[in-house]
Amino acid sequence: MACLRLKVRGESRTPLTKIAFSSLQDKIKVLRAKSSLRNSSEFSRVCLRSSKSHTERLIEINFKKLMEVVPGAEGLCVAGNARIVDRRSEDITKVRCIARKQDP
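The structure corresponding to this sequence follows.
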């Protein structure tokens, strides 16, 4: 495992720490247990999240671009897990959209 403290992003913010795990199993174990940190007084302000790979970021960018040009996509959005969701048929409060076609 390797740790790297990143640059400060503003005076009032704490700098982020980037952690690289030696194996995928270690990463999975830590990310599955991250919700228990909220109950700990020592780590209650710690936020863990997995970063996206280059391929995942490209797929997300492509989805966003497709949503802009597809005719009739006004009721659709791309969820955070890269699924295309119909906002008219699903409870949109349960879905965090990363891209949606803007109404003209």
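The chain has a mean pLDDT of 76.
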